[in-house]
Amino acid sequence: MDIIYNLGKGGIKDARVFLINSHRTDTFDFEKLQMSFIQTVSDLKRDAMILSLTTHSKEILERKVDVLRKHIPTIAHSAGLAASLSKTESDERPEITLLLNEARLYAIQLGINIESLNTVAKNFRMDVSVIKKAVNMQSPALLSSERSFLQYYKTFDDCYRQSPDKISSGDLGRNVQSQCKTVLKNILDMCISESNKLHLQIADLSELESA
C-alpha cells in the first residue's frame, strides 16, 4: 500500500493502517483499531477502555464479560462488608443497592438495557415488547426496581442465610459475600444469554429487511 510505503519512508516501520468510517463503526477496520488500542495499554486502563467501548461485536462483548466477571469478587466483598455492619436482627439488606447497580451495569455493557432495546425496536420499527418477547428477556423486569431485585435476591437466602440469633455479624458478612457472588454470576450469565439471543434476533431482522 502507498500509505505504508510512505510511512516507511518517513521512518515509521511496521506501521499498522486501519480503514474506518466514523459514521459506521460496524464497517471496515474499526473493531481492529479498537482491539489494537486494547492490546497496547496497561491492565487497569485496558479494563476501563473495554467498558467504554460502544461496539457490540462478539469479540468486544467477550472482553467485556471477562472484565465484568473479574469485578464480581470485589463487589461481593464490599456487599458482605456492608451486610456485616448492619443490624443482624433486622431484615435490612444494605447490599442490595450495590448489587443492583452492578447488575444494571451488566445490562448496559451487553446492550440489553431498556435504552438499547428501545434503539433496536426503533431501528426495526417494532414495539419494544415484541423484542423482549422474541428474546424471552427476564432482566428488564428483574432490574427495574430494588423491590423486584430484592425478591430475586431472597430466593438464594435458604442457601446462605441463618436466623439472626444463630449467626454473628462476621459470619453474616461472609455468607452474604458468597450469596452476592452467586447472584451476580447468575445475573451476568442471564445477561450474556439474552445478549446472544438479541444479536441473533437482530441478525434475523436485518436479513429479512435486506431480502
Report the sheet with the most strands, covering strand number, pairing sense and barrel closure: none
Number of helices: 11
- Distance N to C terminus: 36 Å
Tell me the structural class: mainly alpha
- Give the helix proportion (percent range): over 70%
Shape: flat
Radius of gyration: 22 Å
Instruction: Output the helix-strand order.
Output: HHHHHHHHHHH
Compute the number of strand runs: 0
Number of domains: 2
Mean pLDDT: 80
Give the uncertain stretches in residue-range form. Answer: none
Summarize the model shown.
The protein is 70% helix and 0% strand.
Describe this structure in words.
With 211 residues, the protein is mainly alpha-helical. Helices cover 70% and strands 0% of the residues. It folds into two domains: 40 residues, no CATH class; 156 residues. The two termini are 36 Å apart. The protein is flat. It holds the Pfam family IIGP. One of its GO terms (cellular component) is membrane. One of its GO terms (molecular function) is GTP binding.
